[in-house]
Structures are given as C-alpha cells and as structure tokens.
Design brief:
Layout lengths: L8 H12 L1 H9 L6 E2 H8 L3 H13 L3 E6 L2 E6 L2 H10 L12 H8 L1 E3 L2 E3 H13 L3 E4 L2 E4 L1 H10 L3 H7 L3 E6 L6 E4 H13 L3 E3 L6 E3 L1 H9 L9
Antiparallel strand pairs: 1-3, 2-3, 4-5, 6-7, 7-8, 8-9, 10-11
C-alpha cells in the first residue's frame, strides 16, 4: 500500500464501507496480531456462516485490506501489510480518549502487544524513544534506520549478533500507537526487532489475544538500553 497513489474520496468511501460491516470488522481485528487464519476460523470469529464469510473475505481482498496465502488445498487470510494494521490501530484512537483500561487484559494490551507483527504499547513506545534518544536509531528520509551503535547495543544487551546485523539492512517507520499517542517502531525493522526479542526470550506471546509479556530477563536487558516505563509491567 505504501507505493500506491494518493487515495481518492471514492476509494476512501469504499474503505469506510468495508470497515462499517461488523462481521468484516471482526475479521480484520482478529488478524491484527499478524496471524494468517482460514475462512472457517474467521467465520466463527465474526459469527456468520461459511457462505457469508466467503463473501466478506472476497470484498476485503478486492478492497486491498487482506492478502491470501494458498498452501496446498488450504487458504489462509492475513492483513495485506502493516499499514492496514496501523490504520486499524489509528481508527481506535477517538474511542479511547478518556477511557482507561478497565480489566487486567486491557492493561496487558496497553503495556505491550503486537501491532501487526511489531512491538507496540507502552513498552514499544519506550523502546523507540530510548533508541532515538541514545542515537541508536535515526529518522532518515526513507524512514527509521538502526545505526551501527544501536546494533552493537542490542547485541551487548543479549540479542543474537547475526540478528542485530540483519537489522542494519532493514528500514522501519514510526507507527502511531493508538493507546499511547506516540510512535513505536513499525515496518520491516520493527517486525524483525520484535522477532529477535521473542527468539531471545525477552518477550513471550500471551495465551490469547495480542498481548506480549516481557520476561524478567527481558526487562533487565531492555533496562540496559535505557527503556523506562511510567507504570511497572
């Protein structure tokens, strides 16, 4: 989507129409953790029958919000890219202006979660701000870029040397966090950084939903990078 021409008012109206149907909205939200799911599972999430789900999925595919992965006889649906996820996150902002999380699950999602496949929430924002403040990350014309000093710092903090070397070849972007109203690292760089932290055991996925749970060792490693949170995890 990032290379597409500017959206016309008619295209914007079509996106609005796609999101206005509750069943389609439920499907998109279910895929916002970056997973790929079969039509049957998405039908159950949306509370509709197989034929209705198929029609909704076709509209979402045609509208550019979903992508299809075919594996043998199986078909899996996922969000088209992280820009679609960022759009869904941004659309949640007006509804959360004055409403603090009311459950432990809400609090966990606000503290750390996946936004498509990259780290978001308080922890994601704190990491982005710390990397920028320490000149480990820079905002370049092509987006966010990890600097060699940042790769060394991540390696010294405990990430695999090979993984941090690969991060230098990737570009990211500032993704506006819907709960924190500040930026976390999105794009390919954000995805790869989050994957490296999961592989290193700094983070683990919650049993359900999009929440990410940092380990005690992960918090120590992140603290060595200057990551500070206003509220404890």
């Amino acid at each position: 989507m990032s290379d597409a021409p500017a959206m016309t008012r008619y295209q914007l109206a079509e996106v609005g129409a796609l999101l206005a149907e509750p069943a389609r909205a439920a499907m998109l939200l279910a895929l916002s953790d970056g997973t790929a799911r079969p039509a049957g599972e998405l039908a159950r999430v949306a509370g509709v029958g197989a034929a209705t789900a198929s029609a909704h999925l076709k509209r979402l595919l045609d509208g550019g919000l979903l992508a299809l992965h075919v594996q043998g006889r199986h078909r899996y649906y996922r969000l088209a890219d992280d820009e679609v996820s960022a759009m869904l996150e941004a659309l949640a902002m007006p509804r959360t202006r004055s409403a603090p999380p009311k459950t432990s699950a809400d609090a966990a999602v606000r503290r750390a979660r996946t936004c498509y496949r990259h780290l978001a929430g308080q922890l994601g924002v704190a990491l982005c701000e710390s990397l920028l403040a320490r000149d480990y990350l820079e905002a370049a014309s092509e987006g966010l870029r990890l600097l060699p000093a940042g790769a060394r710092a991540l390696s010294e903090a405990g990430l695999e040397l090979e993984a941090t070397g690969q991060l230098l070849r990737l570009h990211g972007r500032g993704c506006l966090d819907w709960t924190e109203r500040r930026l976390h690292v999105g794009g390919p760089l954000g995805v790869a950084m989050t994957s490296a932290m999961l592989d290193a055991g700094w983070l683990r996925r919650a049993t359900q939903g999009r929440a990410l749970v940092p380990s005690a060792d992960g918090l120590r490693c992140l603290s060595s990078l200057g990551v500070r949170l206003d509220t404890p995890l």
